[in-house]
Amino acid sequence: MCGIIGIVSGSKEDIVSSVIEGLSKLEYRGYDSAGIAVLSDGNLQRRRAVGKLENLENKLEEDPINGTVGIGHTRWATHGKPTEENAHPMMTKDVALVHNGIIENYKSLKDSLITQGYNFTSQTDTEVVAVYMQSCIDKGSSPREAFRQMLKVVEGTFAFVAIFKSVPNKIFCAKNKSPIVIGFGKNMCVGSDASSIAGNCDEVVYLSDGEYAEVTEHDAIFFDENFCEIKKERQKVTDDLINEGLGQYPHYMLKEIMEQPNAVRKTIVANEIPVDLLKNVSRILILACGTSYYAGMVARYWFEKYLKIPTNVEMASEYRYRFPVIENGTLVIGITQSGETIDTLEAMEYARSTNSNCRVLAISNVKNSAIARSADVVFYTEAGVEIGVASTKAFMAQLTVLAMIAFHDRPEVLNELRNFPNICDDILSSVNDEIENLAKNLYSAQSIIYLGRDSLYPIALEGALKLKEISYIHAEGFAAGEMKHGPIALIDDNLPVICLCPSCDVFDKMVSNIQIAKARGKNVIVFTDSIGNETFGDDFKKIVLPNICQECVPLAYVIPMQLLAYKVAVLKGEDVDKPRNLAKSVTVE
Ligand code: M6R
Fold it and tell me: What's the CATH number for 3-241?
């Protein structure tokens, strides 16, 4: 969380606009406040603003700055409210610093600096790092020494980008757990991800944990944790890193929902399941968070039912803290859109460190992400850059890879999967108006329940998550059979109940559960197919989807759930792509 950027340029012309452009591509990581600092002729200057980047842009228009080196930050608040004082860059007399991560020992460092007479103007952990470097300079250290001394004392997660008043045209950056990419091109640049700097460079270097770099106008030098110079391999910037913008769409979320047929197509073409992937695998352990976790839940139904491999799906944030045992023969699968969710990364590392015999597979949408680099095997989902905070096409692509694994030896299902992009197109065009009407019916609801069984249960959870994260309506997904054990008490005529009921193995059971709900509340909405259409009378609100093979129903039924959440949020006037309190990539525990 938090997006950071740094650019070293020979000229003063465009540094501010280049930093702002980079930040605009990183806003998905946080948008509580934004700030920029530049160095010009030995002067550090800074502008900061609360809220989205446009507020900072307005401020810069009223009160411009320029320089030959600049750093910028878009914040997702951890320590201290989203105020201007707490916005980055943190600046002292001699240094300006932006940070992504959490400094765990900030309190003891701060107490010691206060004892030495230093003052603080923010509640952030980051300011401590800037002030610590200032204290080193005050004691006679050079900027390089101050940066290195700081790296020796800070504990926690960080990506730092710093500029020093006395060092023209140089950026210092370092990483532990939070990502940093260095770009080589027309300008030298540094960013939280490759796509934020892709427009400025042709090649990138991914910094690893413990490493730091000094980036100058035409080059960069890299150091390991002992500050010995090291060589790093450069990688070409590829087209998939480029965010092509909104095009004809009003929001990224809608654009990304509509891109799902292509995401499935490209993911199928790009991946081949190695014949020995499941050789000697006696158990599968899936680790993920949020929407990716729900993709894992779907996969569990598939892996157990069709591959007959016992499968656990674990919320990565909970997993390692209960010190689980990992059996020999376990295949660990980490699922992640961003490839940098710290909970997932740490859970995967825990699994590997507990049993070095287990193989670790990552399913990631971001090439060379931390999680992709940490795994033994990687399958990349080819959803393309996903900007909307609410994940849609990445989820679809994750399900595609997981289905390819589950059905690798069932050509008839793989054929259905290859045809799924056409079904996906059909659904997108056929349900749009009905979903629009349903959204009008639901957008003033206080709370909504989603019900599903079997592989549609995770889709009920996903539908509820999509709705709550962008429309702020309370929503909960339940396993339909579990309703009668408690949650049914919630149902009355005012509570909309959305039921996912394709005609598959558990159809009859699901029909009974829906009847039971209908007997207690009048606002029951059923998503079903032609068989369900005949089964449920006209007193039910129904949205009828095409008949689809049972294995592909989770992929199909999530589409109207995404559209519904999107349309409800738009009707409510919410900021769909940047919902409150959230960030796309979650790099704090
Ligand atoms: O990048 P990841 O897939 O690891 O992210 C996991 C979750 O943070 C993410 O899916 C989150 O739940 C989304 N906002 C859901 O739309």
Answer: 3.60.20.10
